[in-house]
Write the C-alpha cells for this entry.
Amino acid sequence: MTDKESDDIQLIGIYAVEPIDGTNKIHIKHIQNVTSDTTIRDTPIKQFNLTKDIHAGICACNITHFYLEKSKNLPVMHTTICANKHLRTIPLYRLFLSFKITDDIKTRADLLDKPIEGTYTLNVVVGSNGMTLDEDLGVFENKNAILDKMESFVKTEGMMMLTNELVREAGDKITEQYKSDFKFNIPDKYLEK
C-alpha cells in the first residue's frame, strides 16, 4: 500500500438500529469500526422460498456513521426477493422496515445513549422506485412477530402477482439480451465439400 492509498482510507463507524420490544422506540448500537476499503454488508437473519425458483432473505440493516448523521429515517431490516433465472440470481424488489425518528436529537448522547422515539414504516422498492405501504405500524411487538409479518406479506396473493410479473419481465429482458449477444448472419457464400 502506498502512502497516498493509506491517506485515502478512512475509519467508518458501523451501527445497527435495535427495536425495543412492545414500544415505538429504538436503541442505536455501535457494531464496529471498519476502514473505507471494507465492503459493508447487512446481517442475514432468515431465508425462505416463495416458489422453487424464487427465494427471499431477511437481513438486519447495518448503517454507517455518515448515514446516521444525515438522516432521521433509518432502515431497520429488509426482505430481498430474488429469482433464479437463466443461470442468474435476479433481485426483484425489497421490502423495508424503517424507523423515522420523531425525538429532537441534539447531541451524540441523545442519539447513542438513550432510547429514541419514532414511528415504524413499511416501504417497498422495485428498481429505483419506492413506495410507502404503511406510514405507522404502531409498536414493535418483537423480532419474531415482525419477521413473520414480513414473510406473510411477500406471500400474499397481490405480492405474488407482482413477483411473477417481475420474473416475467426479467426473463423477457434476459432473452432479448441473449438475442442481441448472439446475433449473427449466415454467410451468403461458403465453401462446399
Summary: Helices lie at 3-8, 65-70, 108-112, 143-154, 157-181. The CA atoms of residues 82 and 91 lie 4 Å apart. The chain has one domain: 8-179.
